[in-house]
Amino acid sequence: MNLIRTIPQIIAFIARNWRKIIKVIYIAVDIIIIINKMVKPTAQMFVKRYIKTKIKTSLRRNFVFALSNSGIIMLLLVIVYITGNSLTARLVTSIVLMFIMLVKIDILLSRTIPDLRRALKRLRGLQGYLLKHALRLSILDIVIDSRITALFIAVLVAIGVRWGLLGGFSIVEPWIELISSSR
Q1: What is the pTM of this model?
Q2: What is the reported pLDDT for 11?
Q3: 15, 62, 65, 137: least CB-packed within 10 angstroms?
């Protein structure tokens, strides 16, 4: 009953004060525009800096991991060479290389894939809408930054060096030789 009485009162109030209401709406829209102009550049810079930091941290970690793997592989291959290509040295090298591969698979399955899923889920949701439309940010523009691109190229070179070192070594061959010699 009260709602029915108040609706006509609301309509009467709007009819009497419509000019004031429109002025208040214009002022509110102006305030929102001013706040948007003040906050938007700061938010853009913060989000860009955050994304760049996350990408750089990940690339640096991968670069250090690839270089340390290359160093370990070089050391193991030198040991195999010094020992005269002995079966024991090749078995130890094979075990260490399998461990490195398992660590990389674990990192891929436990960190990289879940991170990509979370990022895609966020980009499809409200956060992605804010990044794309409200803040007018492009992930591609952030990734193409020259420092990030140089770090990415360094990671690729380090991984290429690692695979180049592994080119002359078979992980399975020492185990096949061990099994065949035990028969």
Answers
A1: 0.57
A2: 75
A3: 15
